[in-house]
Amino acid sequence: MSQTPLKTKKPFFLRFKDERILLILFALMLAFPFVMNLITGSGLNDGITKFWQGQLIIFFIMAVFAMSYDLLIGFGGILSFGHAASFGGGAYTFALLMEHWAPNFIGKYRILIGSLDITEGIVLLIVFLAVVLVSILIGLLFSATSIRLKGAYFAMLTLALGTAMFILVKATDFHEWTGADEGLHGVYVPDWINPTQNRLTIYLISLVFLVVCYLVMKRMVNSPTGRVIIANRENEDRMRMIGYNPVLYRTIAFVSASFFAGLAGALYSIWNTSATPTMVSAVTTVNALIMTILGGMGTLVGPILGAAIMQTISQFFYTWFGARWPLVFGVLFILIVMFLPYGIIGTWRMKRNDIKGGWQKLLRLLSKKEDL
Amino acid sequence: MTEDILLEARNLTKAFGGLVAVDDVSIKIRKKTMHAIIGPNGAGKTTLFNLLSGVLPPTKGEVYYKGEEITKLPPYKRAHLGIGRTFQITNIFPNLSVMENVRLAAQAKGKDNFKLLRRADDFQQYIDKAEEIIEVVSLKGKELFLARDLAHGEKRKLELGIMLACDPELLLFDEPTAGMSSEQVPELIDIITNIVHNGDRTAILVEHRMDMVMSISDIITVMNQGRILAEGSPGEIASNPQVQIAYLGDLYGELA
Ligand SMILES: Nc1ncnc2c1ncn2[C@@H]1O[C@H](COP(=O)(O)OP(=O)(O)O)[C@@H](O)[C@H]1O
Ligand SMILES: [Mg+2]
Question: What is this model's ipTM?
Answer without folding.
Answer: 0.92
